[in-house]
Amino acid sequence: MWRIPVVVLFGGLVLGLIGTMGLGLGMGAVEISPAQVLAILLDHLGFDTATEFSSTQDAVLWSIRLPRVMLGIAVGGALGVAGAAFQGIFRNPLADPHLIGISSGAALGTVVSILVFGGVLGSFAGPVGGIAGGLGAGVTVYMLARHEGRTEVVTLVLAGLAVAAITGAGASFLSVAADDARLGSVLFYSLGSLAVATWDLLWVTLPFVAVAVVFLPVAARRLDLLLLGEREAAHLGVDVERTRMVVVGLATTAVGASVAAVGAIGFVGLLVPHGVRLVAGPGHRVLLPASAIGGAALLVLTDVVARTVALPFEVPIGLLTAIIGGPVFLLLLGRTRREHGGWG
Amino acid sequence: MSAAAAIGLGYRVGDATLLDGVDLDVADGEFLGVIGPNGAGKTTLVQLLSGELHPTSGRVEIGGRDVATMSLSELALLRAVLPEHHVLQFAFRCLDVVMMGRYPHGGSEADARAAADRVMTKTDTASLADRLYPTLSAGEQARVSFARVLAQETPLVLLDEPTGSLDLRHQELVMGTLRDLADSGAAIVAVLHDINLAARFVDRIAILDGGLVRAVGTPEAVLRPDVLGSVYGIDVKVVPHPEVGCPLILPIGGGRVD
Q: Which one of A78, A140, A142, B68 has the largest count of C-beta atoms within 10 Å of its C-beta?
């Protein structure tokens, strides 16, 4: 069985990420050439270059596009690595944080937290509430979908759908009823947008994502063994319960903080790990970091499309990921059904 | 000294008693076969011996220590377990699967690779090394899982139906490998359905029925028409194997619902 060498995979992913960052920084209503992008970045680091740029270009790049691209990297990385982790822990290739209700739970948690604790926690009210809401939804779906040591494909997706419907509606209802400027538009949490990006928002989101991206790979071997089966993993010395708590906790932390920042963006956590598995196999030591980088690149690229495809309007990014991800999900669902022999 | 022992071992779920006061032990270098009809408690016995289930009465000792007091990682160095069913659906290469058996040893990738190569040669699975596990037949998957269990290199090996889905040649190969393993000092406990296969390879047979040990001893001692007849509810004839002399079981009728 042919598989792409790990060095080539990571080299390609990093180059892809750098390329999409270039697009994200350069493209838009205000054109900034790659040379100017570089010159402005160097200028902020204290180096002078011969390349000329206007103060408008400088302001657009440094205050708008750079935080937006960086936030896209953080959120895309979070969704990619969390998708891979959830699929491993549920032993189910369809477990996307959005599809299994964790994103909507995080949205509800974020709204409630901002309304109730906004005064006390300040800008951390969002991520803290998002993480708590995501955990609540995740635990609920998990308990509903687990049966005899495994999670059934359809039960997982249906339970996720129900939890997502309830929590999503709750989040939207509160947004409308509270009419609070801190919450933004009603659709924000259900479709997502990186337009809210600021440096401040990046700094309250990044630590939560970084914790997951750094520490999830520590559990990579144990996640591999879990795919053998929970009994088999325990026979090999893996503390299944503890691994599950740590992995779900870390992945939900990343997703919760991401949803709090930019709303729920679906399918990234499904598409990216699936693509990585196709070329590099299911081993989590490669899958987790590769999904983080791939998720970052995919989200930055999708965001470029979202804000340039219908100028002067911006398309909600969650719509675009759903347009690509939905059909892929259906394909995967059909294949999983065949492989599991029925809707098991 | 016994490698593993069940002492007054019982397991109840609700009103059902799956295992009731079982006393059984296996010594280092011994191959113990466990036979019995469906629902006799064979799989429950393996799950209790492995520490996977906790007994509701009695205890299990491995290497003289109560399993209930041992950590999962300690146990993983002392006993390996081959379950009856294999559930891996992700596209790992078979080599990766076998290397997972080395996890408890925590050695380097190269050590794991060397150990995997060794057991894959021994179990005739080397040709499957680069194949993807979910694409294999049930029998091939069982052989790769068997190789994974051997890669764990533990003094005690517990197997639930290791030959169930195998062709004749690979049944012989697996049983021969287990025999060699026992001869080199390991203790083996295997649940087996094929009594004739068991009779040729094991040192002792335990017959389980209704959660109780009905007989335990050498194949010659326990594979008697009266015992088998009452346990399985059929009439059998036992003759000496024409080539190797061990008991050969020939069912001759009686398998009716009455």
A: A78
